[in-house]
Amino acid sequence: MKVYADTSWWLAYKCRLDAHHELATSIFDSYQDAEIVWTPWQRVEVFNSFRQAERFGLLGKGDSQPLISALQQEVKLGYWPHVEFDWTNAIRLAGEISAKHSASMVIRGMDLFHVAIARELSVDAFLSFDEEQIALAKASGLKLLKLTKTKR
């Protein structure tokens, strides 16, 4: 199952102090066939979020760079399949999604682009902890992946 995870999931998955960390790490218990894709857009968004998490104290001083290096190595090793997409189509689709939904819901530009890329990639499911982005993904026709805490 091909899954697009937004920045909120990546931050929760990699940062133990994030409120959703335990839930984020349960994905492979809940969905053993999940294959979470990695795109150039996530590289920008996720790495920036790690740096911002350090800036605001969610990560300790100097902790973002080792996380970034580890994630880069994981992508290189194939843990997170790197996929390319057609940027022009994704931008066009983002505009279409905006035109259809912006008058009725809160949509941040970065969230709009995550949803458009997920649709462009024809993923099986979308994963996020951001309620506004979840609402947009759902309104845009994406199947949402629900995570539940595992009992250990």
Strand-helix topology:
Blueprint: E1 2-5, H1 7-14, H2 21-25, H3 27-30, E2 35-36, H4 40-55, H5 64-77, H6 87-101, H7 109-120, E3 125-127, H8 131-139
Parallel strand pairs: 1-2, 1-3
Helix pairs in contact: 1-4, 4-5, 6-7
Describe the structure.
- By secondary structure, the chain is mainly alpha-helical.
- It is built from eight helices and three strands, in the order E-H-H-H-E-H-H-H-H-E-H.
- A three-stranded parallel sheet has the order 2-1-3.
- Helix 1 (about 5-15) crosses helix 4 and helix 6 (about 85-100) packs across helix 7 (about 110-120).
- The model has no long low-confidence stretch (mean pLDDT about 95).
Question: Which structural traits does this protein have?
Answer:
152 residues, mainly alpha, 8 helices, 3 strands, globular
List low-confidence stretches.
Answer: none
**What percentage of residues falls in helices of 4 or more residues?**
40-55%
Mean pLDDT: 94
> Secondary-structure element order, as H and E?
EHHHEHHHHEH
By DSSP (H or I, 4+ residues per run), the number of helices equals 8
How many β-strands, per DSSP?
A: 3
Based on helices, strands and strand pairing, what is the structural class? mainly alpha
Radius of gyration equals 15 Å
Alpha-carbon distance between the termini?
A: 25 Å
Question: Percent of residues in beta strands?
Answer: 5-15%
Tertiary shape = globular
Strands of the largest sheet, in order across it? 2-1-3
Largest sheet: 3 strands, parallel
